TrEMBL record:
Organism (species): Cuneatibacter caecimuris
Protein name in the entry: L-fucose mutarotase
Gene Ontology MF terms in the entry: D-ribose pyranase activity; fucose binding; L-fucose mutarotase activity
Gene3D superfamilies the record matches: RbsD-like domain
Keywords: Isomerase
Family matches, as Pfam families: RbsD_FucU
InterPro entries: RbsD-like_sf, RbsD/FucU_mutarotase, RbsD_FucU
GO biological process: fucose metabolic process
Catalytic activity entry: beta-D-ribopyranose = beta-D-ribofuranose; alpha-L-fucose = beta-L-fucose
Length: 144
């Protein structure tokens, strides 16, 4: 047992977060995201029983965001013509602000470009999140 580690973080996920280096990316994917095919060259961690906000909050307690890029946190943009509300993005902004002190680190990536960039990710966390367009990508920084 360890102290002060959020219980939702499995030993496998802790190991992956520790292994990742500066500029490596991790995707926390919603239940509709093709985690296994996009992450075929990455480490895929199954967390199907959990939603993204609780995982994001736990990860950001340990994971430094990259300060050398303008937007180390990126969301998948809603496709033109999709009339989808994304209130979960407000939750993400609150979580990022709570853990990092600012909401300004969050950017948006067009859907198909998001998939392309996710294919280069070190790891993908496959969740049971049901919100649409809930995928989020984090880029790791350094501990200072």
């Amino acid at each position: 047992m360890l102290k002060n580690v959020p219980k939702i973080l499995s030993p496998q996920l802790l190991k992956v977060l520790c292994e990742m280096g500066h500029s490596d990316r991790i995707v926390i994917a919603d239940g509709n995201f093709p985690s296994e095919s996009v992450g075929k060259d990455a480490i895929v961690i199954r967390m199907d029983g959990h939603g993204i906000p609780e995982i994001l909050d736990a990860v950001l307690k340990l994971f430094p965001l990259d300060t050398y890029v303008e937007k180390p946190v990126n969301l998948m943009e809603v496709m033109p013509g999709d009339h989808v509300e994304t209130p979960i993005w407000d939750q993400y902004a609150d979580i990022v602000e709570k853990n990092e002190g600012s909401r300004g680190q969050i950017g948006h990536i067009e859907r198909f470009r998001f998939y392309e960039e996710a294919r280069e990710a070190y790891a993908v966390i496959a969740t049971g999140e049901q919100a649409l367009y809930a995928n989020i990508m984090l880029q790791k920084g350094v501990v200072q």
